[in-house]
Amino acid sequence: MQQAAAHYPWFGMEQEYLIVDRDEHPLGWPKHGYPAPQGKYYCGVGADRAFGREVVETHYRACLHAGINIFGSNGEVTPGQWEFQIGTCEGIEMGDQLWMARYILHRVAEMFGVCISLDPKPRVTMGEWNGAGCHTNFSTIEMRKANGITAIFEAMKGLEKTHTEAMKVYDPCGGADNLRRLTGRHETSEADKFSWGIANRACSIRIPRQVADEAQGYLEDRRPSSNCDPYLVTGMIVKSILLNGHSSPSPKKTKLIVA
């Protein structure tokens, strides 16, 4: 990360998670069946749509008191699924802040007698339910300047070049977890194919509509799983875009001289 410091790399991570009971059953789901199809739960309001909001809001306040740079939370597509956002953070601070926010979330859930699942695709949600990711927003000082869209487009080359390698570090199981989630359905790309687009949630990398319109801003890497290691993810993004796919400068060749 220090090798890329001159580019002032900024990150924001969107942590999705599922609130479950101690039997790993999603909060708000019938014990012997399934809830109504997804669609009405995203940013939903009401006891039939939002399950566990007290956990979410308590977590938000606890993060503020702890000095965490949290900037939002919302109900997600699958019932019982929520998201919080951390950022903007520069460099390695992104990993520090997300790990602490996760810890606080687990402690808050404990207070309410429930648990938090960071599994990107729990068994009970297999089928027509969205999985959970940790979408990672990234920008450099070049991207944030006027006409920074040029630098964003250029970044796609490095991200495509390292796609296979990135998929191995974007979840803790060497890519196996993401295979359950990145199927090309439910607002995801396909795990074995790199793609990017503007305002397209079915791509590996999404350029937000506002960024395209203003020709400057950031990109969103939608590949990381909800249980990813943020240090590895942010390091991989920097390596792909700013270090030409290398984690450290190539060593200089030296000649051994024997006296």
UniProtKB/TrEMBL annotation:
Ranges of residues in domain GS catalytic: 1-259
Keyword Isomerase: no
Family matches, as Pfam families: Gln-synt_C
Keywords of the record: ATP-binding, Ligase, Nucleotide-binding
Coiled-coil regions, chain positions: none
Protein source organism: Caenorhabditis briggsae
Enzyme Commission number, as recorded: 6.3.1.2
MF term (GO), any: ATP binding
Entry annotated with the keyword Ligase: yes
InterPro entries named in the record: Gln_synth/guanido_kin_cat_dom, Gln_synth_cat_dom, Glutamine_Synthetase
Native organism taxonomy: Eukaryota, Metazoa, Ecdysozoa, Nematoda, Chromadorea
UniProt record similarity statement: Belongs to the glutamine synthetase family.
Protein name, per record: glutamine synthetase
